């Protein structure tokens, strides 16, 4: 599969990285991993890596910090890292170590949920979403061909501590796995390829040999990638409405078309509804009670959408104007309304608490290059604070001026880079103050302008422009 | 009943304020009805720009809003007419875009940021409300406010006007008809009052009209004609002089500020009548002044002789100047107004447009319903009174009737005057028959006569035109006539609604059909393909298509086009026609030379969509033949029996033309062998489809209406594409014989690449 050339270069990079690491990041060897299980889940369009590890404090001091690297080869990047104690589910914080030289490893400093006494053990579960790690191989396929993805990773789990026993499980999307690297203790059963268990693995970087494994598997779904998502959440106290609009710039990151699109073969095969790497439709599960859904794009309304909303569910099913094959682009807008009371609580005094999903999106597995969420509060709202379920990369506060506004609506824009849909449907909590005077501003302004218009008309009507009688 | 009557009819002075409020309410209702009846397409489909030309206007409006007025004024568009480009800012009528741009800015100023698309879509319905108001004012000057209200109602819902002003029909006519009627109203007002202010206002709106629509020439000729007729009737007066001079001087200078018009008002034949009458009226005024000084009984005769002499001399001078070339002769479109066969022979591009065809007579009834038979009666009533403004109605009627008969499009200019004349008729009938009391001798003397006087005063008319009062005595005839006319009016409304709903409310970008269960199914192939172009081709890709689709590609796909609906360069269009009509070898050369990346054709064979390119193909051939008579010949596209065929009887020229190949490429494979059917032309196609060598199919829309082809790059080894196809085809054949097809081909291919 891979030429020996690229393996050598990867090895060199890893060694280089390791030597740099020694300079910039000094990790004391205070732990021992008693047992480590890595699960790489590639059933979605991105990789979800779960590391369950039992660690033991081998030093004589109590410890609170544990370092864990994640491998991000090539153009891949870590979207999120979450960590918890396996026993009682206590979350712990995972913080990226600010070190740019450690490519292709990205180190995370995990603050343990509780201080670990000497010789004590704790089981951590670290979950990470990694985008861009799956590559279509072959990169170009014919319209009706099957799509295959390939994943390459290190045979031994990168870890700065001595590991007594470790195992890697790779879960493919499909049982159809034509190629995978075979080492000792390699096993394939069904969807899963297992590497290990391996005993007594030295800390990462001390071993001269870095072995990689590659798995190539069939992937019957398209790789939905949103280059950009702009999501507006607009609160209207007067309209008692929560309006959500999402603007997507979508690409299919799957294997590209070998030749041009043939409608003839698309039409003739579509009767059998074969699995295809093209995006044919997207399903948006919305919150119960969503209404007035719409689906448009730059040239107007798209009539091929279905919206169903009842007391149990609300589903917006959209079909793009054309099937989106690998490398093709499409951009569109969806939006809907919700009744505000389900999302807004009145707090103390003139305080309000808003609780809305920060990110929704299609049910197909999706990754996002950049997400911009704008929360537009009523005109005159002050003292805006928020608690986000996801790390925010950039925050902007501004006034959004639109229909019948005099000063503009208080808004915040939250930018998050590289998101996977694992993080959707988590609620952001926004608190703000909104006084009655601010609420009355709009009707009073409208009243005043209509009245002044009337006065002006009355005065103009009384002016006599005639030259002499 | 009698109290109501006494309140409403007996004493108009005391109820004037109630009446004016009622009038305002009625006018508002009419405006609302006018707007509402144009919203069928928005409700049925969506807020979308219709047809072809509006897409350009929409694109220009977006440009104006985005880049500002001065950039718009100097706009050189390099994304159309590739590689020539178009000086768009100087070759369009900016009135429409500036209007919507101004509305956009005004709404923004009062913090109502409405999307420019919605302003464009709703501009025409909005202005139709104003048109109804202008018609009211105009008709009020002719008869009274009752007739005015009727005229406004007719104008609001007459299909002849709705056809060009439904929501989404964002074309110049959207605002031009309002401007036409308002300019005419101001002209009548100016001529009646002899006021330079009204004349100046008239000039101002004339300028607006000039900036909005090429049809301003209608005003430019109609007002002078009115004046000329008045002079011939011996009705010259100071009022006419002031009104005409102020209008002409100011209006012409103002109109020359529009870059697209420039010096045309003093250089072309279309504008010479106005200039001539301007000269004439100066002479007449001079002569009139002389007559004041030297009273004589023979003066009138002398005057007329002089007028006729000068007209003859002026006309001869005009003809001489035209022949010697100082004044540009009539443009082709105007020639075709006099000689309906002219365009077909000399300028096929004008004849190819369906709206430039002569009108079929049922369309008069279709577009105007009962108004068309009330129209002559209204003109007759004008003859009976024949004040100066009634002469205008007569002149307008004659001219507009002729033009409407010559060109379907000009039905639009006929509609307002038909509404006015019909309103005068209906109003007269109601005036006569809706008098509740039977006339009595005494009453006639006192009250009703007084009310007549009051009415005449109110309308600002002349007492001299007062006719002796004639009444209807029999209650039966009153009920019969009024009842009949009420029924007619109701039928008229029903007809208008039906026509608007069925004939004029389709966006033509989106097609609607019915599913077997009766639900609406929308066929959206155009936008599907345009959006594909927009999203999945490079921004600077050049798309070749027939000129009909140029504006839509520019507007929806945002890609560079070779030709579009602004048919300013006939040769360039003929080049595209030639590329479509020629064999691939010839076409490929043209495509390469014009750096064409994609070719787009419209094909309705699968769905039975009859407005497709194969049906338009003969016009492409004709237009190409006009420029290259040796290379493209229409005759060769017909069978020996003179039939236009696409099936196995089609001529070789037809079958080898690029258009035929692109339309039917792979189409027969969609059917079982031998069953391929073209549903537009009802032809059974040969089971072997055409083969393309120089183009690749890039995209075909769901119902095959839009087919996009990618022009192949030059072959890497310098072979021509026919050799490549022959080589590949040959290899395949060999492979079949040898049995190791795939591998052999693969190996050979790879080896070649390394060299």
UniProtKB/TrEMBL annotation, chain A:
Compartment(s): Endoplasmic reticulum membrane
Source taxon at top rank: Eukaryota
Keywords tagged on the record: Endoplasmic reticulum, Membrane, Signal, Transmembrane, Transmembrane helix
Signal peptide segment: 1-24
Transmembrane portions of the chain: 444-463
Principal cellular location given in the protein's record: endoplasmic reticulum
Pathway(s) of this molecule: Protein modification; protein glycosylation
InterPro entries: Ribophorin_I
UniProt entry tagged with the keyword Isomerase: no
Function: Subunit of the oligosaccharyl transferase (OST) complex that catalyzes the initial transfer of a defined glycan (Glc(3)Man(9)GlcNAc(2) in eukaryotes) from the lipid carrier dolichol-pyrophosphate to an asparagine residue within an Asn-X-Ser/Thr consensus motif in nascent polypeptide chains, the first step in protein N-glycosylation. N-glycosylation occurs cotranslationally and the complex associates with the Sec61 complex at the channel-forming translocon complex that mediates protein translocation across the endoplasmic reticulum (ER). All subunits are required for a maximal enzyme activity.
Quaternary structure annotation from Swiss-Prot or TrEMBL: Component of the oligosaccharyltransferase (OST) complex.
Family, as annotated: Belongs to the OST1 family.
Full protein name: Dolichyl-diphosphooligosaccharide--protein glycosyltransferase subunit 1
Species for this entry: Arthrobotrys flagrans
TrEMBL record, chain B:
InterPro entries xrefs: Oligo_trans_STT3, STT3-PglB_core, STT3_N
Cofactor or coenzyme needed: Mg(2+); Mn(2+)
Annotated localization: Endoplasmic reticulum membrane
Domain Oligosaccharyl transferase STT3 N-terminal: 22-421
Function: Catalytic subunit of the oligosaccharyl transferase (OST) complex that catalyzes the initial transfer of a defined glycan (Glc(3)Man(9)GlcNAc(2) in eukaryotes) from the lipid carrier dolichol-pyrophosphate to an asparagine residue within an Asn-X-Ser/Thr consensus motif in nascent polypeptide chains, the first step in protein N-glycosylation. N-glycosylation occurs cotranslationally and the complex associates with the Sec61 complex at the channel-forming translocon complex that mediates protein translocation across the endoplasmic reticulum (ER).
GO BP: post-translational protein modification; protein N-linked glycosylation via asparagine
Protein name per the record: Dolichyl-diphosphooligosaccharide--protein glycosyltransferase subunit STT3
Reaction equation(s) it catalyzes: a di-trans,poly-cis-dolichyl diphosphooligosaccharide + L-asparaginyl-[protein] = N(4)-(oligosaccharide-(1->4)-N-acetyl-beta-D-glucosaminyl-(1->4)-N-acetyl-beta-D-glucosaminyl)-L-asparaginyl-[protein] + a di-trans,poly-cis-dolichyl diphosphate + H(+)
Name of a matching Pfam family: STT3-PglB_core
Source domain of life: Eukaryota
Residue ranges of every copy of the STT3/PglB/AglB core domain listed in the record: 542-592
Topology term for the membrane: Multi-pass membrane protein
Pathways involved: Protein modification; protein glycosylation
Upper classification of the organism: Eukaryota, Fungi, Dikarya, Ascomycota, Pezizomycotina
The protein's Enzyme Commission number: 2.4.99.18
Listed transmembrane segments: 21-43, 91-107, 119-139, 145-162, 174-207, 213-234, 246-266, 272-290, 302-328, 364-383, 390-408, 479-500
Similarity comment text for this entry: Belongs to the STT3 family.
GO cellular component: oligosaccharyltransferase complex
Provenance organism: Arthrobotrys flagrans (Nematode-trapping fungus)
Swiss-Prot/TrEMBL keywords: Endoplasmic reticulum, Glycoprotein, Glycosyltransferase, Magnesium, Manganese, Membrane, Metal-binding, Transferase, Transmembrane, Transmembrane helix
Keyword Magnesium: yes
Molecular-function GO terms, alphabetical: dolichyl-diphosphooligosaccharide-protein glycotransferase activity; metal ion binding
